[in-house]
Write a sequence for this structure.
């Protein structure tokens, strides 16, 4: 099953991606959005993961961490038994609980905001609804998983330049 894992730059490190709430095309999503093709349903799940990435960014910022202000989603293929129902009833219909960490050989692509939305990411992570709405109109850039370490270096370099400015 294709899942969309909300992420931040810390997830690009050379280790498995920790288990967490992920998003995917669930039976509940198919019931809620009937008559749509798989591509539309996958876009809904991807967007839910991008929104969840904001929450991860907000948590890391609140903890005093500095990180690139970019939403990030990792697309992965996992067996259905690697997932269970999300533990909270208020989770989105796309939400599933990942049972265990995901090895990088299961990740198929990385999706990241471009640098032009950093101010909106910071504002949305702080609770600004207008910034959150603007981000909803932004598509994430696609990277092949083989670009993971180069992407991590580029994002770290961009963060360092922004901190010096």
């Amino acid at each position: 099953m294709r899942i969309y894992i909300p992420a931040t730059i810390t997830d690009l490190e050379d280790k498995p991606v920790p288990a967490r709430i992920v998003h995917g095309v669930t039976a509940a999503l198919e019931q809620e959005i009937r008559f749509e093709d798989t591509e539309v349903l996958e876009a809904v799940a991807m967007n839910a993961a991008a929104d969840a990435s904001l929450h991860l960014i907000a948590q890391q910022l609140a903890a005093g961490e500095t990180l690139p202000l970019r939403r990030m989603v990792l697309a992965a293929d996992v067996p259905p038994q690697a997932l269970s129902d999300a533990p909270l009833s208020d989770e989105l219909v796309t939400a599933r609980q990942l049972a265990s960490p995901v090895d990088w050989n299961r990740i198929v692509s990385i999706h990241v905001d471009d640098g032009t939305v950093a101010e909106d990411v910071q504002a949305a992570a702080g609770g600004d609804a207008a910034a959150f709405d603007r981000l909803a109109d932004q598509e994430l850039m696609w990277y092949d998983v083989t670009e993971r370490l180069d992407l991590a270096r580029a994002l770290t370099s961009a963060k360092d330049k922004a901190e010096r400015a």
Summary: The CA atoms of residues 74 and 122 lie 20 Å apart. The helical segments are 27-32, 38-62, 118-125, 129-136, 148-164.
